[in-house]
Design brief:
Its EC number is 5.4.3.8. One of its GO terms (molecular function) is pyridoxal phosphate binding. This is Glutamate-1-semialdehyde 2,1-aminomutase. Belongs to the class-III pyridoxal-phosphate-dependent aminotransferase family. HemL subfamily. This protein is α/β, with parallel strands linked by helices and about 425 residues long. The protein folds into 2 domains: about 180 residues, Aspartate Aminotransferase, domain 1; about 250 residues, Type I PLP-dependent aspartate aminotransferase-like (Major domain) (Aspartate Aminotransferase, domain 2). The protein is built from 15 helices and 14 strands. The strands form 3 sheets. Strands 4-10-9-8-7-5-6 form a 7-stranded mixed β-sheet, with helices on both faces. A 4-stranded mixed β-sheet has the order 1-2-3-13. A hairpin with a 4-residue loop joins strand 2 and strand 3. The radius of gyration is 21 Å and the shape is globular. Bound molecules: 4'-deoxy-4'-aminopyridoxal-5'-phosphate (PMP).
Amino acid sequence: MGDQRKKSAKAFKKAEKVIPGGVNSPARAFSAVEMDPIFIEKGEGAYLYDIDGNQYLDYVNSWGPMILGYNPPQVIKKLKEQLKKGTSFGAPTEIETEIAELIVDFYPAVDKVRMVNSGTEATMSAIRLARGYTGRDKIIKLEGCYHGHGDSLLVDAGSGAATLGIKGSPGVTENTAKETIVVPYNNQQAVEKVFTEYGSEIAGIILEPVTGNMGVIGPEPGYIDFLRKITRKNGALLIFDEVMTGFRLARGGAQELYKIEPDLSTFGKIIGGGMPVGAYAGRREIMDYVAPVGPVYQAGTLSGNPMAMQAGLATLKELKNKKIYTQLEAKAEKLEKGFKKNIEELEFPAYFNRVGSMFTLFFTAKKVKNYQDVKSCDQKLFAAYFRNMIEAGIYLPPSQFEANFISLALSEENLDQTIAANYQVLKKLKAE
Ligand code: PMP
């Protein structure tokens, strides 16, 4: 393996000398799948091309943002136009209002939006706001959910931290970590217990309403409703981290899907159309607690950056068309049927889970409902699956603790090719 990726191997050696681990985000490391990362040259539609000239069908989509596929013409056009006008002003532009209006339109729970530069900033700011607004310090977080690398949220986190088996992180003080109370996902009793003990100290609960960062797991019936009720009863805020699910599971995100109005929502990924963006948003009276109107301070030199806003706005304008979500669902359903048929036919011990255009193939025979279930998956088998899929020209997230994303650019033939590759690889693994 690897002969056809000589240039990538060389580029990685060079990168390792000047970048920690050779990557600018740990989730890009291929250590869990015992490979060197693949260096990318370009993306086109549903395809990624590496620097050796290999072509891959892509199910990572930059970890979610590229819902339209690579280089959608509407987005590129807007970026080119903005490039000529200027890439940053540090002063207001009308584009910022336009994109905020679109988000407000699609999310009934949102009256006001503040733009930041990443999902991490969005959740970090939402937590600060929840604490400032309620005058309380403690936050409830769900085990295996990932909300970026802000100190308060880097406790029992999913994604790269889970892949690398990092439970907390040196550098996060004990005092900070102890204000974050972690409970298992999909477990009502655990949340009740925390409220019984600390009720008046809880500023809010933050969660991925459908998780992507421990693989795709949806809420059990009644769970989200329960969280809405218990937070309201105790004067705590319900914070939906929709960085991954926003504009993906539906135009109105998971909150549309489960018909719940959270107090605060965080966004990222798709709303930047592939440029660095995050946002936090919510009801007027809470958002007006943010500076310059309110006392909770949060700022950003490049926040609302015009290039990022143009890419985001052009993407969201495409997503105004609700048919897009019907198309995504049809593609995702086709893939689900194909994968499930393969698993059944081969009697392979695997569990396929999907919500909308996010899915994970878990290497376990039993249903996956929480982080402990994901941890019990066969990671070695996943790694072998991943490597074989790469050889078949299918680029997947290099960890069991991640979501796969379906983009609009994937054609019927692309999906057939993926299902066929999945069959061949599972068959081979079964025989080994
Ligand atoms: N929240 C969720 C749900 C995420 O999936 C991520 C990133 N994968 C983040 C927050 C952090 O976003 P960023 O990497 O842009 O800081």
